[in-house]
Amino acid sequence: MNKFHGTGVAVVTPFNADGTVDYDGLKNLINYLVEGKVEYLVSLGTTGEASTLNKSEKKKIWEFTAEINNGRLPLVAGIGGNDTAEVAQSIKDFEANGYDAILSASPYYNKPTQEGIYQHYKAVTEATALPILLYNVPGRTASNVSPETTCRLANDFKNIIGTKEASGNFDQFNQIMRDKPADFMLISGDDPVALPMISLGAVGVISVIGNALPKQLSDMIRLALKGDFSAAAPLHLNLIEFTRQMFAEGNPAGVKAALKQLGVCDDHVRLPLVKVSDELRQAIIAETKRITA
């Protein structure tokens, strides 16, 4: 599964001022990311504001993304939720043309036990022949997928091929790396810690900031994956302030402000999200100019 080594981008969903999906902006963004030489795209993850899109919008976005991508990069579809039966049905109904895998976040809000999480993902694997990437993001789901559960799933289900880990817990990363099957992929789900995670054995990142800075980020990730940390570290440090700004007032409002500055797409978001404050916007503009000058 080397197609998922390197930089994946959790693609934002551009919107028009009236709240409708901006397909011209999405086309611009997909082409921008391909030209930025990232390794793969994730359509309708958390960063894509999937929770505010209805089923028909999601279907159209997935189809449009595959059409514009036209086989240039591997594609991953984000399909998750807190109702296991509904998630499994959504995956069964998913038209996989052009897609290589599914990224599915651990159930949010319900706060299931580890056995509940295991059984949830068991149902997910039984709903599709596509490879599955787990997604552990306790800051959003209010529950953690333990290293034991991650490795249990990895060993029990061959189509679970990796995990996007956004727990920020390096003890957890260490345990996964020690106990996982050899071919199971640990992928960073947090831009700020992608470099140190790669030093532990992670195979890359599924990124937010890569929407705006695909070349700068993917250059750094490639150097790290080659083991050239002395060259990768300065590139990582150069992105620290930009990365902090992207999450200062929530995701994806920050990165959409940067994309607007870059002329890729507008910065509209759907409620309950709102645009970044004027103060943060000016800081993002300045930092985007500095990095891309």
From TrEMBL:
Residue positions binding pyruvate: T47, I206
Top-rank lineage group of the source organism: Bacteria
Subcellular location: Cytoplasm
GO CC annotation: cytosol
EC top class, as a word: lyase
Subunit structure: Homotetramer; dimer of dimers.
NCBIfam families noted in UniProt: dapA
Name listed for the protein in its UniProt record: 4-hydroxy-tetrahydrodipicolinate synthase
Organism: Pedobacter steynii
Gene responsible for this protein: dapA
